[in-house]
């Protein structure tokens, strides 16, 4: 009876603690068999170990006996290569990944090794594996770190980052396991869609994706579609408009919506702008271009903040990736917004671009027949992982119990009261010698806090988008005795903090003092991100503590729940102990989570049709790229024979191929621009009580059907006009010119119906103006 009660209690705890979790009992039962193989494998030489791993390649699939063999071989390979014997929980993680789940493993529990053993397992089944991370640094670090393990298992490994040439990328993708950031892998895929020779493709067909920091990649990054753009000409910003908009004031001349995604002129603002621009009527047909310039300048002025959304460094505007806290390399805003920000900051304008192609993270991951992932906070997004990716969560228990002390939030009436309390908290904890990690929301906040600490004679190290190249070194020392580290977006850093610093010399001393103390300067828009910051303390059973400071005037609250209940009072220091204050902040966070989820859903609703159209067109493009279909399509057209006689059959086929691929790519780019315009105005359809999404489909589908016939028609016209000289064929002279450079756009989607609400506000404002 006691045993039965114990089993029932264990199952009940699993039900309570693991919502949506996969049952792991079948894998737990294999652990004794794995351990039993250790003495036998320890007796093998390195060559014999590699040979034994190679025998798994002959197996049709990984059944229980093969899983036992793989995990035992992986444990032995890690022991020899890294001097690390994989814990049982790491092997559970490996088996969870091999069964196609997202495994939740706490920070410091060894996800990297678990992921490497799973990748090796897939590779030994003959499958090509991409281990997808949130940034280049982690991809390279993990690939290099795990390489000795892969070598002992006879599996080849490579990694891609922004510094590699096309040939180096191809070599990395030719490995059985390739590590890369989601953006890098996504953009390589988009670049492959633009090649005109089959041999220029760098990525083989995708087979397996193992996603590190899966919630960051699949949820946070999924809100920002990957967009490839090509240069057209130098952008021209309307500096006159920028100077006018710079003088406008919130509440008087313009308003913004509560989530900070839209801004619009008030009646007074429109009058001021019209007068400053020489009496133009912004809302007349002749003033439409000026109105567009005003709107984009207002967006840059009102909704984008220096040192929060972007940096100005070396005379250039550099975007900050909000979910990673890093500079977003080679990323820009579209549709004149980049030029507007450059005009706002009075820096030289960069090239204007046109969108060549784009893909959402959902669509990128959907290309892989098999997907698995790992993260420290999967349960919080279990429903989204199931809804958007058909992935289930498997919660892996920690190797050692978590003893971190999570303190109650400290809430203040204003940000200034909160900041003083944070400095006081840091001083008191620092005097004990405990290391402190402070997680801030953005660059500006991190630098303001660092300035306050310096004045209080509390020197700190700052990690933000300005110095993210030194990230690894800074984080490595964050657990050192007496260290104070201030970091933006620590949740996206993906690196462990070891007590005692990189060498662990002071580990016991720091542990006796209570371990790492984590301070959050504000609650994040997601409780999951709060949990990730807390999780930097207390790794692998270490002591530690975490506390969040918050204010009723934090952006989270003012943007999502601005109506604070009456009767919440603060003491003389500005601190609020009324439980209603915490309930209100929790409510604001839930609202923010709901908005983000709706943005994610909305992006997916509209892009599913686009992805279907893209797949259909890509099949046609692949046929043109890899066969003689282009030459066959144009063989009966004017001048085809003369082409062939002058340059030879093979070159003529390539010319036809390049002409048709050019027009296909150009028409797809035009189609995307058309759909963007439709999307931006589609909410007007709701005025006629039509469903915006249905209307989007009704417009987009017949427009897409025009593309393939038009490709052949335009290609025939180009072929008729092509110039054939003594040196061959000059396609550029016939208008077949490809972008001289490419970059990526950072595009945030608006929440569902936000565009409609903004339109209604502007229509009402316009009607009031005309009436008066």
UniProtKB/TrEMBL annotation:
Domain of life from the UniProt record: Bacteria
Pfam families xrefs: P-loop_SecA, SecA_DEAD, SecA_PP_bind, SecA_SW
Annotated membrane topology: Peripheral membrane protein
Record keywords, A-Z: ATP-binding, Cell membrane, Cytoplasm, Membrane, Nucleotide-binding, Protein transport, Translocase, Translocation, Transport
Domain Helicase C-terminal, residue spans: 418-585
EC number: 7.4.2.8
Residue ranges annotated for the Helicase ATP-binding domain, each copy included: 92-250
Primary location group: membrane
PROSITE patterns (alphabetical): HELICASE_ATP_BIND_1 (PS51192), HELICASE_CTER (PS51194), SECA (PS01312), SECA_MOTOR_DEAD (PS51196)
Catalytic reactions on record: ATP + H2O + cellular proteinSide 1 = ADP + phosphate + cellular proteinSide 2
Presence of keyword Acyltransferase: no
Subcellular location: Cell membrane; Cytoplasm; Membrane
Record: residues binding ATP: 90, 108-112, 496
Location of the SecA family profile domain: 9-577
Keyword Mitochondrion recorded: no
Functional note: Part of the Sec protein translocase complex. Interacts with the SecYEG preprotein conducting channel. Has a central role in coupling the hydrolysis of ATP to the transfer of proteins into and across the cell membrane, serving as an ATP-driven molecular motor driving the stepwise translocation of polypeptide chains across the membrane.
Cited PANTHER family: CHLOROPLAST PROTEIN-TRANSPORTING ATPASE, SECA INNER MEMBRANE COMPONENT OF SEC PROTEIN SECRETION SYSTEM
NCBIfam families, per database record: SecA2_Mycobac
Family: Belongs to the SecA family.
Subunit comment: Monomer and homodimer. Part of the essential Sec protein translocation apparatus which comprises SecA, SecYEG and auxiliary proteins SecDF. Other proteins may also be involved.
Full protein name: Protein translocase subunit SecA
């Amino acid at each position: 009876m006691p045993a039965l009660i114990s089993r029932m209690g264990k199952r009940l705890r699993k039900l309570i603690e693991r919502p949506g979790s996969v049952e792991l009992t079948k894998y737990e039962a294999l652990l004794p068999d794995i351990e039993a193989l250790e003495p036998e494998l320890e007796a093998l030489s390195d060559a014999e170990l590699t040979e034994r791993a190679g025998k798994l390649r002959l197996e049709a699939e990984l059944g229980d006996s093969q899983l036992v063999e793989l995990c035992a071989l992986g444990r032995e390979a890690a022991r020899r290569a890294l001097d690390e014997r994989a814990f049982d929980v790491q092997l559970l993680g490996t088996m969870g990944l091999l069964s196609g789940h997202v495994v939740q493993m706490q920070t410091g529990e060894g996800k990297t090794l678990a992921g490497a053993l799973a990748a090796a397992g897939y590779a030994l089944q003959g499958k090509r594996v991409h281990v997808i991370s949130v940034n280049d640094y982690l991809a390279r670090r993990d690939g290099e770190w795990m390489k000795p393990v892969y070598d002992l298992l006879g599996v080849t490994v490579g990694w891609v980052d922004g510094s590699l040439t096309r040939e180096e990328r191809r070599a990395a993708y030719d490995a059985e396991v390739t590590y890369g950031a989601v953006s890098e892998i996504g953009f390589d895929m988009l670049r492959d869609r633009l090649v005109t020779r089959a041999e220029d493709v760098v990525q083989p067909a995708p087979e397996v994706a193992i996603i590190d920091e899966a919630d960051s990649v699949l949820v946070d990054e999924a809100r920002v579609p990957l967009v490839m753009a090509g240069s057209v000409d130098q952008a021209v910003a309307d500096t006159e408009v920028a100077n006018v908009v710079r003088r406008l004031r919130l509440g008087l001349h313009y308003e913004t919506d509560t989530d900070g995604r839209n801004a619009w002129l008030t009646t007074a603002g429109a009058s001021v702008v019209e007068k400053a621009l020489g009496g133009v009527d912004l809302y007349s047909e002749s003033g439409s271009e000026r109105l567009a310039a005003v709107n984009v300048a207002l967006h840059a002025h009102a909704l984008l903040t220096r040192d929060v959304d972007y940096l100005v460094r070396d005379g250039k505007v550099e975007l900050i990736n909000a979910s990673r806290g890093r500079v977003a390399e080679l990323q820009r805003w579209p549709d004149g917004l980049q030029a507007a920000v450059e005009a706002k900051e009075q820096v030289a304008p960069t090239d204007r671009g046109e969108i060549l192609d784009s893909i959402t993270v959902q669509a990128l991951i959907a290309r892989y027949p098999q997907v698995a992932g790992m993260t420290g906070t999967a349960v919080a997004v279990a429903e989204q992982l199931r809804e958007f990716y058909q992935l289930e969560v498997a919660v892996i228990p920690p190797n050692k119990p978590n003893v971190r002390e999570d303190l109650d939030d400290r809430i203040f009436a204003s940000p200034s009261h909160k900041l003083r309390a944070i400095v006081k908290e840091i001083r008191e904890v620092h005097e004990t010698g405990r290391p402190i990690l402070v997680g801030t929301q953005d660059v500006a906040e991190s630098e303001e806090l660092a300035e306050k600490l310096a004045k209080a004679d509390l020197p700190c190290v700052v990690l933000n988008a300005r110095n993210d190249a030194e990230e690894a070194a800074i984080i490595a020392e964050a657990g050192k005795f007496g260290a104070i580290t201030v970091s933006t977006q620590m949740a996206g850093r993906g690196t462990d903090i070891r007590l005692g610093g990189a060498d662990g010399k002071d580990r016991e001393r720091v542990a006796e003092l209570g371990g790492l103390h984590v301070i959050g300067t504000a609650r994040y828009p997601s409780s999951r991100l709060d949990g990730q910051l807390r999780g930097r303390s207390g790794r692998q059973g270490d002591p530690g503590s975490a506390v969040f400071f918050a204010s009723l005037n934090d952006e989270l609250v003012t943007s999502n729940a601005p109506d604070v209940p009456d009767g919440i009072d603060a003491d003389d220091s500005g601190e609020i102990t009324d439980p209603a204050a915490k309930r209100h902040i929790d409510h604001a966070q839930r609202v923010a989570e709901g908005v983000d989820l709706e943005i994610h859903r909305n992006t997916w609703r509209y892009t599913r049709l686009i992805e279907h159209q893209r797949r259909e067109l890509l099949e046609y493009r692949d046929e043109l790229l890899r066969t003689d279909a282009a030459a066959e399509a144009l063989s009966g057209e004017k001048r085809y024979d003369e082409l062939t006689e002058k340059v030879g059959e093979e070159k003529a086929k390539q010319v036809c191929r390049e002409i048709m691929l050019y027009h296909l790519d150009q028409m797809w780019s035009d189609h995307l621009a058309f759909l963007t315009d439709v999307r931006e105005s589609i909410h007007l359809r709701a005025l006629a009580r039509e469903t915006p999404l249905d209307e989007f489909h009704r417009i987009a589908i017949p427009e897409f059907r025009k593309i393939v016939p038009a490709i052949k028609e335009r290609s025939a016209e180009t072929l008729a006009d092509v110039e054939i000289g003594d040196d061959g064929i000059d396609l550029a002279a016939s208008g077949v010119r490809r972008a001289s450079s490419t970059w990526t756009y950072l595009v945030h989607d608006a929440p569902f119906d936000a565009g409609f609400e903004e339109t209604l506000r502007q229509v009402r404002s316009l009607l009031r103006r005309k009436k008066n």
